[in-house]
Amino acid sequence: MASDIVQKNYTAKNINILKGLEAVRKRPAMYIGDVSSRGLHHLVNEVVDNSIDEALAGYNDKIMVSINEDGSVTVEDNGRGIPVDIHPEEKISALEVVMTVLHAGGKFDKDSYKVSGGLHGVGVSVVNALSEWCKVEVKREGAVYFQEFRTGFPVGPVKKIGKAKKNESGTKTTFKPDSNIFNVTKFNFETLAGRMRELAYLNKTVTIEIEDKIENVKEVFKFKGGIVEFVKYLDETRTALHKPVYIEGEKDDVPVEIAFEYCDAYSDNIHTYVNNINTHEGGTHLIGFKTALTRTLNNYAYKNNLLKENSKISLTGDDFREGLTAVVSVKVMEPQFEGQTKTKLGNSEVKSTVETLVGEKLAEYLEENPAIGKKIIEKCKRAAEAREAARKARDLIRRKNALDTMNLPGKLADCSINDPEHCEIYIVEGDSAGGSAKQGRDRRFQAILPLKGKILNVEKAKINKILENNEIKAIISAIGAGIGVDFDAEKARYGKIIIMTDADVDGSHIRTLLLTFIYRHMKDLIAQGKVYIAQPPLYRVKKGKEEHYAFDDAQRDEILKRMSKNGNTEVDEDGIPKGVNLSRYKGLGEMNPEQLWQTTMNPETRTVLQVNLESALAADKIFETLMGDAVEPRRAFIEKHAKYANLDV
């Protein structure tokens, strides 16, 4: 019977062909990840990447980005300018081809671009497709050309609108994201500025200006020292043990640029890039760097009697990376990406290229700077001693069954389903909230782990001290995937790890402590999109049987305003309509189990924020600033962002 239905209803006329940019507008997430804030800001990055590619080719040294008062964004450079002559195959202007045809661009022509960040030729055409309107102005060959587009389609052909000054060239693209596609259309200056700063560090010949004409703020990024200044920026709240080591060279047509230094931190902080793309998951360039670093430092230590052969201490790769801050940047003609987020370099030849260059040049550096070499080895020896102490602590913990997943922490209320993909664990602040969560949860797939007080600040602690903290031991045991070098995200007992804390200052602090721990010691959970932050409501607004929850002050005011219009015209001195009961939740424990389920735990009605590594650089800086030893940067950060905090006065 089912077969008859298929044959009757499923014919050639049911096969839809999406032409041109229709596919992009129909399935935008396939091209930019999502249609939320992340995807929105990705549009700007796509356009800027084209300007950076012009810089890599040696034709551009300035990029200007502006968030305009009407919500649009302009990206302008002084590169060669997109060609405007007629394309031999498409019979239309090359500018129109670039803006309206997927997989069209100069990135596939090795004579135009040796390397590029935009590898698939979909960037600017996708931006055009997802914009309400887009306007492109090109200066080249003594003239100024212009073309306008609406939802990806040209309003008219390319027009010559003026003359350009002698030797003046470049492309100016202005676009306004389509509000019918994006959930969010307001650009965040700091998000864009973070990426522009990163690009300026990676491309020391380029000046990047970014301006927000709505908020009236502007930044200019120009770093003559390139990634050496990048490393200093990453470590500005830490104490460096020496000046950054800089390695530059080219082998087998792969330019390599590396800067690194050791500081007083207990974790490593390595950022890797391929053609300016942040490879969060690492890859062959990272493997090559780590291998060469370990081998070269080990050889240097033995050669100079800094580590005796009969010593009880044996240094490992992890010891050589403790306190290491590094930026590894390579340029590859045809990079092959792999991994879950397609940000892991797979080219096998790059490993040997990086390994050889680092091995040769680092050995030379150490011979010329023996005092620095000795400092580095001493730091690594201390790391080895802490690692050995941590091993003993782990062994002791295992003997006590605290890390054994067969003996889970007593306060864990586990779920009945065993499939991690369908299970989630709530890490909850306090026993009171934990009690409500245990009663309100769906026991089939939701586990609850209440924490007592604040966990240890891992930013300031060695691994052996971390493993002695009872709350951290409970988290490690409950998740069941180990910690640090032993961590394996695939062994995690839950597909979602949800942090649920109060919406006040203490709750924010506990949430930051938990995120710092996960980021430093279980980072793959974040990389795989398994970490979330619960969003409990701040207010309950009730009148009779009508009940609403507000997650911030603006939503509360909107609900009160709506209730006032519904016949409740009289308000009290606080602006609350008569007969309306407004409650502010001081903590999760004030909600009964049913309310907690309804607002914060029910997958059908809750709001959770996924934690991602879209900007690992920004995450690292925030954790370092908030949880490190330096007071002044922390004070400046808090003063700058105080208006966003929920303060209980």
Please characterize this protein's 3D structure.
There is one protein chain. This protein is α+β, with helices and mostly antiparallel strands and 649 residues long. The protein has three domains: 200 residues, Histidine kinase-like ATPase, C-terminal domain (Heat Shock Protein 90), CATH 3.30.565; 168 residues, Ribosomal Protein S5, domain 2, CATH 3.30.230; 169 residues, 3-Layer(aba) Sandwich (Rossmann fold), CATH 3.40.50. Helix content is 37%, strand content 20%. The chain contains 21 helices and 24 strands. Strands 1, 2, 3, 4, 5, 6, 7, 8 and 9 form a nine-stranded mixed sheet that branches. A five-stranded mixed sheet has the order 10-11-14-12-13, sandwiched between helices. A hairpin with a 5-residue loop joins β15 and β16. α4 packs parallel to α7 and α13 crosses α19. The longest helix is centred in the middle third of the chain and has 30 residues. The relative contact order is 0.07.
Write a short abstract of this structure:
This protein is an alpha+beta fold and 649 residues long.
Instruction: Let me know the CATH homologous superfamily of the largest domain.
Output: Histidine kinase-like ATPase, C-terminal domain
Summed up, the helix count is 21
Which architecture of the largest domain does the CATH hierarchy give at level 2?
Answer: 2-Layer Sandwich
Task: Note the gap between the termini.
Answer: 69 Å
Shape: flat
CATH topology of the largest domain: Heat Shock Protein 90
Number of strands: 24
Fraction of residues in helix: 25-40%
Helix-strand makeup class: alpha+beta
Largest sheet: 9 strands, mixed
- Residue runs with pLDDT of under 50 for 5 or more positions: 1-8, 10-18, 401-406, 641-649
Integer-rounded radius of gyration: 28 Å
